[in-house]
Design brief:
Length: 501
């Protein structure tokens, strides 16, 4: 199955104001991701080549902000990196950028004189790791030195670093072409390795990096990154060299090293990992078209299918959930169950849908499914009236596509009955059935839940209209299930409740 591609030419990339607004994102299926702009210049604190979910799918931590490159020809150095500081951009490596493409992983192509550099970035599936595959063609008459400068950090992706006010505490070790950093706060380890060349230790800080999009949002917009040194590869005259830089992160050094080894220690290893990761994307497309043979393949649909996959994440013990959006959204119940038909059912991913429903039933407390699960703490928040009702609808949609009543009866039915029971007699946040059969709720429990100084911006207490539609739908769904599972008295009760509502 052919993967789709989007390309930008040199002329398109020359229009800085347009190009800087174009962003890419790839994910690893754990909640982690890599993201930047097509110019390779980070404009958000959420950008980074390795934003690792240290406790999948949460605790997303920026570990590798970027890789900046340079090539030395004789005594002349050409810098391919691009960083923004307040009032200026330095270096201006985007001026050497000849092409950019995503197919489906991002590739940057730089050129200066007779030297051409291609960098392709990918994330191995279900690993907190990222790899940059380099192909350097030296068409000149002399050997050249190619250097890669990693900009490292270790911060929750909502935060920024000011090394003078909130210094990072870490130790650094080097083993050949591998360097490892162990951080105290937060407790984490980052390892980075080159498959060719050598690492030259030369610690430095890149201070006051400016993130224009954060400034536009009124957020903290300056950041400091640590540069432990650089990797150097000698590329002989009239030769092409291929090599890779691999970065891994985990909550401790042993796991970090293990992840690094699974990606590979040689260029051939990393290229095999790249093919494996590409094959995973191809299988997503192939499975969809195999299940819907009447649908002709098309690029727009392929992009839609691959994009849908980025939201589906796997946590501890293989538990499936959905992130509500990138960059900063967490696992939100409402968004998850609204999107479940499009993400998992129309795409034929029925087993993952079943596991997701089962996973979130385990969160059910006093008849409520969580509003969201906090990225940092992993704690569930239950301040919602509609996430639970959308959950019941998601079960109905699951049954429409799969007809798997057996799993629902065995794994979800008792929980569903508990949900209705709690709503009937009253549960948290003043959620209860009123005398008119409608569902009563507090002021900030629908999708319009913004608050300022502890007060709801758009208070919708009592009986929001869409909540009543969802409540009625839930009761009719429960009646259907009660009949199917041969509980006629319960089916009659749910029907009576629906008629009153």
């Amino acid at each position: 199955m052919k993967l789709p591609a989007i390309s930008f030419t040199n002329k398109e990339l020359e229009h800085f104001d347009d190009a800087i607004q174009r962003e890419w994102l790839i994910t690893n299926g754990l909640g982690g991701y890599a993201a930047s702009t097509v110019l390779g210049l980070n404009t958000r604190k959420y950008h980074g080549l390795l934003v690792a979910a240290l406790h999948p799918p949460g605790n997303r931590t920026v570990c590798l902000a970027k890789l900046d490159e340079e090539v030395q020809v004789g005594n002349v150095v050409y810098q391919f990196g691009a960083n923004e500081f307040q009032g200026k951009i330095f270096p201006k490596g985007h001026l050497f950028l000849k092409a950019f493409s995503v197919s489906p992983f991002p590739s940057y192509t730089y050129g200066v004189h007779s030297i051409k550099v291609k960098k392709t970035i990918f994330m191995p599936q279900e690993k907190n790791a990222v790899a940059a595959l380099y192909k350097v063609l030296n068409g000149s008459e002399s050997d050249v030195k190619f250097r890669i400068f990693p900009l490292l950090t270790c911060r929750h992706f909502h935060s920024v670093i000011d090394r003078w006010r909130t210094p990072l505490c870490f130790s650094q070790q080097q083993h050949g072409s591998e360097v490892k950093l162990a951080f105290d706060m937060p407790k984490a380890a980052i390892a980075i390795r080159a498959t060719t060349g050598r690492f030259i230790e030369n610690p430095a800080w890149v201070e006051r990096l400016y993130y224009r999009e954060e400034a536009n949002r009124g957020e903290s917009s300056t950041d400091d990154c640590y540069q432990p040194g650089y990797f150097e590869v000698i590329v002989p005259r009239k030769r092409e060299e291929e090599f890779a830089i691999v970065t891994a992160a985990s909550e401790n050094s042993q796991k970090c090293t293990a992840i690094l080894h699974t990606v590979g220690s040689t260029t051939a290893d990393v290229k095999r990992q790249f093919k494996t990761t590409m094959a995973t994307r191809e299988r997503i497309l192939a499975a969809f078209y195999a299940s819907l043979s009447q649908v002709p393949p098309s690029d727009w649909l392929n992009w839609l299918l691959l994009s849908a996959d980025t939201f589906i994440v796997k946590g501890a013990e293989g538990k499936i959930s959905v992130l509500a959006g990138y960059f900063w959204f967490e696992t939100w119940g409402r968004d998850m169950f609204i999107s479940l038909p499009g993400l998992l059912l129309t795409t034929g991913r029925f087993e993952e849908a079943r596991r997701m429903l089962l996973h979130f039933m385990s969160y059910c407390r006093r008849g409520l499914i969580p509003n969201y699960v906090d990225d940092k703490s992993g704690e569930a928040a239950y301040n919602t009236v509609d996430a639970t009702l959308w959950y019941v609808n998601a079960v109905l949609q699951f049954l429409k596509y799969t007809g798997d009543f057996k799993s629902v009866q065995k794994q979800l039915w008792e929980g569903l009955k508990t949900i209705i029971s709690y709503h009937e007699r009253g549960t948290d946040f003043d959620i209860r059935v009123d005398s008119d059969g409608l569902l009563v709720h507090g002021p900030r429990l629908t999708w319009m839940d913004a608050e300022v100084d502890g007060k709801a911006v758009t208070p919708r207490a009592r009986k929001a209209v869409e909540i009543q539609a969802l409540w009625y739908n839930a009761l009719k769904t429960m009646k259907l299930l009660a009949r199917k599972f041969e509980e006629p008295s319960l089916a009659e009760k749910y029907e009576e409740m629906a008629q009153v509502a």
